[in-house]
Specification:
This protein has 295 residues and is of the alpha/beta class. It has three domains: 106 residues, Cobalt-precorrin-4 Transmethylase, domain 1 (3-Layer(aba) Sandwich); 107 residues, Methyltransferase, Cobalt-precorrin-4 Transmethylase, Domain 2 (2-Layer Sandwich), CATH 3.30.950; 67 residues, no CATH class. Helices cover 44% and strands 15% of the residues. A five-stranded mixed beta sheet has the order 6-7-10-8-9. It has a three-stranded parallel beta sheet with strand order 3-2-4, sandwiched between helices.
Length: 295
Amino acid sequence: MLGATPIGNPADASARLIKLLHTADIVAAEDTRRLYDLANRLGVRVGGKVVAYHDHNEHLKADTLLDDVERGAVVLVVSDAGMPTINDPGLTIVRRAIERRLPITCAPGPSAVLDALALSGLPTDRFCFEGFVPRKQSDRIRRLRSLLTETRTIVFYETPQRIGRTMDAFAEVFPPLRPMVLARELTKNYEEVRRSTVADLRQSVIDDPPRGEIVLVLQGASQEELRAAVPSDTDGAEVFDIDRLAREADDLCRRNGFKPKDAIAVTVQAHPYADGSLANKKDVYAAMVHLQQKD
Ligand code: SAM
């Protein structure tokens, strides 16, 4: 059983979590001191055995805990804050439970991803979560570049120590006017949400370095940004892409015995443009015929 714990405000603990802390036979906690601290604040006595369960030992401990589950014990897995498995321990035991066909469920609750996303005011209908950006500058830039044409809202975790360098990298990669939000110390006394743009947020981080725990929320690429990102000739036609699609479709016909119509349909579907639109099948067919005539 996974249990979400508060990300700052103890009053966010669910009634189910409080009951589980009291009744579970075993509580596997990322940091046992923080578990007892939370239990004290909630006025609950941890009834069962408490074991340390963190990134460094979860591979060793998961199966032992699941042996207990097999014997009928209720095992509660909690991290220091928020949802286990979300940049926190827990995934190993979930996977092993699935492999061993043991029951696993979750008492859900607070998580900084959804809290920040909801407060950001940015689109919530489609979003993705990127966790922490890489520490190394070159990796960080590469990762951010790979997200340049992502159209969903993107959520990142960040720390006060690295926020300056991270914002420099965002400013290097993304358009300066792209809407971006910094949310910090969510659910705590000093909760703050800075709704801004990439360039202004970077400046705000320089002028007033944010302290505490941080989530960054970046709006996805706009249609204008996507159009600018797609390679095109002077007429706006994607000549290179059509030729590549024609070659792939031709390959399917030769190697897999596809009919040209089916090969083109499959290939076009499999390779949408950056803005999600599909290539014109007639153009691909014409390019394919041209290709075959040359052979
Ligand atoms: N499992 C947690 C969850 O569900 O949100 C995340 C754990 S991860 C190790 C810690 C990161 O989550 C922090 O560095 C910060 O980016 C984010 N975070 C956690 N609590 C937060 C809070 N109260 N306000 C803002 N960000 C928070």
